[in-house]
Write a structure and sequence with these properties.
Blueprint: H1 20-29, H2 32-54, H3 62-81, H4 85-96, H5 104-110, H6 117-149, H7 153-175, H8 178-183, H9 185-213, H10 220-225, H11 228-245, E1 248-251, E2 253-256, E3 261-266, E4 274-281, E5 285-293, E6 300-305, H12 309-316, E7 321-324, E8 329-330, E9 341-347, H13 351-358, E10 367-374, H14 377-392, E11 397-400, H15 401-404, H16 409-420, E12 424-428, H17 431-442, E13 448-449
Parallel strand pairs: 9-10, 9-12, 10-11, 12-13
Antiparallel strand pairs: 1-7, 2-3, 3-6, 4-5, 4-7, 4-8, 5-6
Helix pairs in contact: 2-6, 3-6, 3-11, 6-7, 7-9, 9-11, 16-17
Length: 455
């Protein structure tokens, strides 16, 4: 239970609804992400029950092993597909297409689409469990066969590959655990990239050997295409390669706004409400930034502030170009457009992703109010950024933390929510502040949304 989410109850805002335990169960332990994870997990457990019943008298059947391999590869395929940019964009597009006349409760639920990562993690964890079961049964069959007729080279190779593959899947799962991911994000990213490719290669090796061992007079190709796992792995492999097919250089013109912030301008056309992943070393690390579309429709820009070694290096020594892969993808803020009116709360360079959205959602009919807390905004970010915010909300609140200190963001957002009668509040800040604000508002019945940093 993350008790740090509980701010000082002395603030002059209404008390949170329900008791602390109920609040944490509803808004943290059983959030949408974990509900999606649970749905995927339960569906897999139902599949396991069906499989156990079907093969209860034939536990040594090769068809049981084949079925388990099929389900494991299907889960890997789902975990890969749900993270594909084009699928994410389709899901968001479907959700934001609902009209304002849709009941607020439904729109509030649809706006949580950004927690789709629960499907990814649920499918990934289930693939490990299924493959662990596959390994156990394969080991059992191997021991029984060895006792009867001695060791066989091909079966031994399959078992060795199986254990290496299980180790790789467990490693990928452990390094994706949130605490590890936060502690060493670059390690997590490299493990996921190289380990993911290595895992797919091992899957293909095992599937081919397994097909060789279980074929009669048919050719290897005919046997392979009869396995659902073959098609699942084909789709997974294609989508692992797909983003890299669009790898290209994005030439930029750097504009240093201050010693803390740089703006990278580019001419490549991008759609509204999207972000780009950029890198100066494609095989090492990638960083996502929201695109601020140019008002003339020709290109856009990325706003980067000092938040770590890579961003510090980029600000002090910007490159003439950066690598981009995949297609621009949407994020949490684009869901603001399904509400009639919203408050956008942000801190520091969070104004970048906010500008990427708030300049265009009013055209759909969404009224936007802005609260921006940052040190010396006009000198740090420049007139163009600040004036762009005021063009969206002429009464935007710029809270200068250098002059006035850190504000009570929950109280500021709640007061404006009640005063303006808006339908939702969106928060873009660091993880701790975002979670605190979203929880502080949701626990008082206010529809609140913010990124969850699940990748």
């Amino acid at each position: 239970m993350d008790l740090n989410l509980e701010e000082d109850e002395g603030a002059e805002i209404p008390k949170k609804l329900h008791g602390r335990v109920i609040r944490h169960l509803r808004h943290t332990i059983f959030n949408v992400y974990r509900r999606l994870f649970s749905i995927v997990f339960i569906l897999n457990m139902i599949g396991a029950a069906v499989l156990i019943y079907q093969y209860r008298k034939a536990i040594s059947s090769p068809m049981l092993l084949a079925s388990i391999a099929n389900i494991a590869s299907a889960n890997i395929m789902v975990a890969l597909l749900i993270r594909q940019d084009y699928i994410v964009n389709i899901l968001f597009g479907i959700c934001w297409s609902v009209p304002f006349s849709t009941p607020l409760r439904i729109r509030r639920l649809l706006a949580k689409i950004y927690e789709f990562g629960g499907v990814h993690s649920g499918a990934a964890v289930c693939s490990v469990l299924w493959f662990g079961l596959f390994t156990g049964l394969l080991t059992r069959d191997f021991v029984i066969s060895s006792q009867k007729s001695g060791l066989h080279t091909k079966e031994s190779v399959v078992l060795i590959i199986t254990y290496i593959l299980l180790w790789a899947l467990i490693t990928l799962t452990v390094t994706a655990y949130p605490r590890f991911r936060i502690w060493s994000h670059n390690t997590f990213e490299n493990f996921h990239r190289w380990g993911g490719w290595f895992t797919l290669a091992l899957f293909w090796s095992e599937l081919i050997i397994f097909a060789i061992l279980n074929r009669d007079t048919e050719s290897l190709g005919i046997v392979l295409v009869k396995f659902p796992a073959f098609w699942f792995l084909t789709i997974s492999t294609f989508h692992a390669i797909l983003p890299w097919l669009r790898l290209h250089k994005l030439h930029v013109i750097p504009e240093k706004l201050s010693k803390h912030v740089i703006r990278l301008h580019f001419k490549e056309r991008v759609p509204n409400y999207v972000g780009l992943r950029i890198s100066d070393a494609p095989l090492k690390e990638w960083h996502s930034f929201a695109c601020i579309p140019a008002r003339d429709g020709c290109g856009g820009s990325l706003l980067i502030s000092n938040a770590g070694d890579w961003t510090k290096k980029t600000i002090s020594d910007p490159k003439p170009y950066y690598w981009v892969k995949g297609i621009p993808s949407t994020g949490v803020l684009c869901m603001a457009q399904i509400f009639r009116s919203v408050i956008i709360v942000t801190t520091g360079s969070g104004i970048g992703p906010c500008l990427a959205v708030i300049q265009d959602v009013p055209a759909r009919g969404t009224k936007v109010r802005v609260i921006w807390s940052t040190p010396d905004p006009w000198n740090t970010y420049g007139d163009e950024i600040c004036l762009a915010v005021q063009d969206v909300d002429k009464h935007a609140i710029f809270h200068d933390t250098r002059k006035h200190g850190r504000p009570d963001m929950v109280k500021m957002a709640y007061d404006m929510y009640k005063e303006e009668g808006v339908e939702a509040v969106f928060m873009i800040s660091n993880p701790k502040m975002t979670r605190k604000l979203v929880y502080g508002l949701e626990s008082r019945g206010v529809p609140a949304f913010g990124p969850i940093w699940d990748s």
